[in-house]
Amino acid sequence: MKITKATKDDWKVIQQLNSQVFLNDEDHDDDLDLSWPFSEAGIKYYKNLADGSYGHCLIVCIEDEPVGYVALAIKDFGYRKSKYVEVENIGVCPEHRSKGIGESLICASEEWALKQGAKKLYVAAYWKNKKAIQFYKRNGFEEIGLELEKEL
User: How far apart are CA 100 and CA 129, in angstroms?
Assistant: First the structure.
């Protein structure tokens, strides 16, 4: 397993890996636009993430095959004292899950966040995504709030 910083040529790899996250999250959000990863906005996001003009992205490869990634960005809450880095999205191919890849990505995320002067790593997870919540808790995250929405 090798973790490397994404380069500008990796945007399609990130897009493909993130589209799998979208498919997984379909069960947790009936308002999720599954075509977004392939939209103009999605492609712009992946290109900016890959070239480093927005955030920071790490890709995990096993024998030169991309099997996971994490997208990170500095998060400014404004009303909170600490500097945060947000795990905007993270994903591991289904056939490679539960093999320590996600944990390695979180560790690498912590290292990058510390280099940015951050004091906290932040992530939001769907309430119904119990596996993700358990994963984050196993990796040291604690609950700090609850997001709510109302259908109109």
Answer: 19
Contact 63, 74 (CB under 8 A): no
Is 37 contained in some domain? Answer: yes
Residue 50 pairs in a beta bridge with none
Residue 151 lies in a domain: no
- In whole angstroms, what is the distance from residue 121 CA to residue 44 CA? 25
Asked, for residue 147, whether it belongs to a domain, the answer is no
Distance CA 145, CA 124 (A): 9
CA 7 to centroid of chain Cα atoms = 17
From the first residue on, what is the mean pLDDT of each consecutive set of 10 residues in the chain (152 residues)? 97 96 92 95 97 96 97 95 97 94 98 97 94 96 93 94
Alpha carbons 9 and 50: distance in angstroms, whole number: 7
Residue in the block written with tokens 């320590």: 100
CB atoms within 10 A of CB 90: 23
Does residue 117 lie within any of the structural domains? Answer: yes
